[in-house]
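Help!! Second protein's tokens look totally different from the first
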Amino acid sequence: DFAYSIDVLHHVHEPRPFVAGVHELLAAHGTWLVLEPNVFHPYMFWAQGRMRRAGFDEDHFRPWVMEPHFRAAGFEVAERRYAFLFPGWVDHVPRAAAWLEPPLERFRLLGAGVVYRLARA
């Protein structure tokens, strides 16, 4: 009924069969929650490029490439949003900043992650 992946798809070299496989495993009307680094966030773009140059199997998650694979496999993009204004390594976010985070992370350049809720049609 439910699948969850975090920071997986940008490592998959052949996304079409992978996405089709997740679709096949989900029950009818199941949901796949996908969390990937946001290529539009300057820090994430820089950090992933740095890891790739260091020899890690790291690439950017490109929504314009993956969304057609989602649809081709039979998923509907039920929701796409940006999240995580502050990186996970920030232990303590000041109260005022935490209050501002939800409205600010709606902007594509500010959310470090992109979150998809994909519905199996």
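Here's the second one for comparison:
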Amino acid sequence: IYCMVCHGGDGLGATPVAEKMAVKPRNLINAEAKAYTDGRIYHAITAGRGVMGSYAGQIPDAKARWAVVNYVRSLQK
């Protein structure tokens, strides 16, 4: 729900919203993102990274944030 607006359902970061952003969202499928540790992805969701703010308020349950990490990993396969 929260990620798809900018990163897209496929994780590529090519969405109508992303096109209008000065700083484009990360492509979560490329080799660089595949090399991220699970902890780095979790931390980005929890604390924010770059221009992306924290989503800890929208996803307060830590298990749900780890589920997002697992979803990103499933997209990368």
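Reply: Different proteins will give different token patterns, so don't panic. Helices lie at 4-7, 16-19, 31-34, 38-47, 62-75.
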